[in-house]
Amino acid sequence: MRTGQISVQSENIFPIIKKFLYTDQEIFIRELVSNAVDASKKIQTLSRIGEYSDDLGDLKVEVSIDEKKKTLTISDYGVGMTDEEVEKYITQLAFSGATEFVNQWKDKDPDQMIGHFGLGFYSAFMVAKQVTLVSKSYKKDTEVVKWECDGTTSYSIDKGKRKKRGYRCNLAPYG
C-alpha cells in the first residue's frame, strides 16, 4: 500500500467543492452515475472499434444503499481504471487558480458549472466522510486498485478485490 497527497494548488479546494461549487447536495449522485455511464459507453466504443474483444456482459449501472451501515455504492461494468489511471485521474485535480475560478463563477447559475471542470467525482465528499473506489481495468494483466480518501487531501492506494472489470464507488457514511 502507498499513501500520498492529492495534487491541488490550494488546500482549500475541498471546502470550495463541498460548499460553493455544488450548492445542491443531490448533484453528487448525478455526477457519479454519469461517470459510470461514461465508463460503460467507453467499453462499448472500444469493443466496436476492435480494441476490446471480450464479452461486454451487462453494462448496467447499479446504485445500492445499505441503511444499516449508512453507505451508498455506485458500481459499473465499464472500462475501469488501472493503478496509473487512478493516480492520474483521481489524485490529480486539474484545477489551477481556485480564487480565479470562484470569482469567475460566483454570479452564475451553479448548474452551468457542472461537468466543465472534472471535479464531479469529488462532489461525493459533500455527503460522505469516506470515499472508497475499487477499480478493475479492462486491460489485460492489470491489478485491481483500491483508492480511499476521507475528504482531506490525503489518500491511500492499495490492491483491491473485484472480479469483473469496472468500478465501485462506496460512500460512507452517506447522509
Walk me through what this model shows.
With 175 residues, this protein is an alpha+beta fold. Helix content is 26%, strand content 25%. The chain contains four helices and seven strands, in the order βααββααββββ. It has helices at residues 13-21, 27-48, 83-89, 98-105, and strands at 2-5, 62-66, 71-75, 128-136, 145-149, 154-159, 166-174. Strands 1-6-5-4-7-3-2 form a seven-stranded antiparallel β-sheet, covered by helices on one side. It is globular. Residues 113-117 have low confidence and may be disordered.
Topology:
Blueprint (H helix, E strand, L loop, with lengths): L1 E4 L7 H9 L5 H22 L13 E5 L4 E5 L7 H7 L8 H8 L22 E9 L8 E5 L4 E6 L6 E9 L1
Antiparallel strand pairs: 1-6, 2-3, 3-7, 4-5, 4-7, 5-6
What key attributes describe this structure?
4 helices, 175 residues, globular, 25% strand, seven-stranded antiparallel beta sheet, Heat Shock Protein 90, alpha+beta
At the fourth CATH level, what is the homologous superfamily?
A: Histidine kinase-like ATPase, C-terminal domain
What is the domain total for the residues?
A: 1
Low-confidence segments, given as residue ranges, are 113-117
CATH class: Alpha Beta
> What about the largest sheet?
7 strands, antiparallel
Task: Provide a short characterization of the protein structure.
This protein has 175 residues and is of the alpha+beta class. It has four helices and seven strands. Mean pLDDT is 82; it is low at 113-117.
